[in-house]
Amino acid sequence: MKRIYFILTLLSFLTLVLAGCSTEEQIFRTEAPEENLPTLTSTAGTSQSSIPTTAMLHGYLVEFTGRDYNGEATTFYYTVTGAGAEHDLLSFFIELGDCVPYPADWEPSGVYVNIHSAIDLYGIKWYNDLGMDESRDYSVTFSGDIPLGITRTCIMLPYDPAVAQIAGPGCGYEISGNVYIDADGDGVRDIAEESGIAGVTVTLSDGDGHSQTALTDLGGDYEFLANAGTYTLLIEAATPAEDFNESLAESFDPSGPTSVTVSIGPDSPGNDFGFSPQVEEITADLEEGIILTTGEPAKFWTKEVRSALHGGNGNPTYDVETMAQFLVQIQALFLPEPFQFTPGNEFQEALNILKEKAARDQGHNALNAISKKGALPDLLKSMSKKDPLLILLKELLTAEFNHVSGRGMVEDPELQNVMLAWAEAIAAEALASTENSEMIQSSRDILKSNGPLNTRIDKAIEFLEELNGAIGGGSGGGG
Q1: pLDDT tier at 272, thresholds 50, 70, 90
Q2: Alpha-carbon span 310 to 320, nearest angstrom
Q3: Range scoring the smallest mean pLDDT among 69-78, 221-230, 248-257
């Protein structure tokens, strides 16, 4: 059982013993209701494997136009179009890798299936002349189900071949990796605690000046398919695409090189790129109003959660069902830690986190009500001190309520998304460092021995307080 579960259970027990309360059954649905909830934006869609579908060679545009499998055979389609060419096309070529069988059919006729002597590649070559302003369709068919992969194409002018990679009959090797938030800046990804960054453009270039790009998915993963050889992987500071690269360059520091050389044949997985946020600069921009925030402090969300706990009384901004769905969305954000609530007790546990100061006071007062000596009074006494982990969890939960309700950095939701994932990583690391320690110790005492983590916690709290508009605002609400 995670340490936070013990703390939440203990605080819930004390609430019942000292004050007494009644809870009403709540409906925590896994799907969002049709009304009241804002649409959450993400920085990328599904995982994208980047296979080039076009190539411009000698003024001719080569397009891969599709693949069709009819249950017995697979056909790959191409179109070649003159687009500024200076000479008529002599031949069009598609490489056939070792994994591809001999073609069963092709269109148009007049082909040669063998090694292209000018480029030393095996494949199918059409000898049909093509005028500088003409266009022609080509196809090649194979028996069986041949997967889509990556191959090479060649446009031949008199004594002058030009080669590029293009989608085609399935061969090639995978180059893959992850772009992630390096919360501790050590240059090594901890998958359990460091989330990926979505929407980052990764570029793959070969030695001939050809390149292709892939966009990281919601988990920060990317992949390419390429022929055997040596390539350069690069994360550029600026790209033509709408992506997160410019924000990375402006507000994050790489924890390792942003360009690496990889050789494939076989596959090359694990090519990761880590980035750490410039937390002090981002916090200062929030403080100075350079980055605007509409975040509400913990006091606001304490009132909302308390109202939901008691069936929606007190004229809240959000009804009970909406608040329940906010908690469902919060539990699905980023990491399994730190917010996973006990079914049926979600509101009480969220309230205990938001009332970090009130919880410490409650624990201190409970000492007088418990006469039996032992670990429990010692734990409560330690929790009555200012505990950075409890403060971090309070501000993080507040920020995530703001996030799922459409508040916070409304002009830069992608940056907020990444920064909250970073803060979750700090909280997960702190929880992991305390869960195996003696329960009578507060996290404040335990974390004293880990100076770098203590510093990251302090920076995370300062950032979250600014994001939540809580500087000088105190912690949320009375009992």
Answers
A1: very high
A2: 9
A3: 221-230
Report the predicted TM-score, pTM, of the whole model to 2 decimal places.
Answer: 0.68
Res 338: pLDDT: 86
Contact 338, 431 (CB under 8 A): yes
Tell me whether domains 51-169 and 172-277 share a fold. Answer: yes
Q: What is the pLDDT of residues 345-404, one digit of tens each?
A: 999 999 999 987 444 444 344 334 333 334 434 444 444 456 888 899 999 999 999 999
pLDDT for 150: 87
For 172-277, CATH gives 2.60.40.10
What would the two tokens of residue 479 be? 């009992």
β-pairing verdict for 273-277 and 252-254: antiparallel
Residue 399: predicted pLDDT: 95
Does the pLDDT of residue 74 top 50, yes or no?
yes
What is the reported pLDDT for 193?
A: 84
CA distance 311 to 22: 10
- The domain spans of the chain are 3-31+280-467, 51-169, 172-277
Domain at 51-169: CATH code: 2.60.40.10
In angstroms, what CA-CA distances link 190 with 195, 198, 270?
A: 9, 17, 13
Place 432 in a pLDDT band, splitting at 50, 70 and 90: confident
Distance CA 467, CA 283 (A): 8
Q: Which residue has the tokens 């069709």?
A: 68
CB neighbour class for 104 (10 Å; exposed up to 12, middle 13-18, buried from 19): middle
**Alpha carbon distance 58, 10 (integer Å):** 73
Residue matched to tokens 């599904």: 46
Distance of CA 171 to the CA centre of its chain: 29
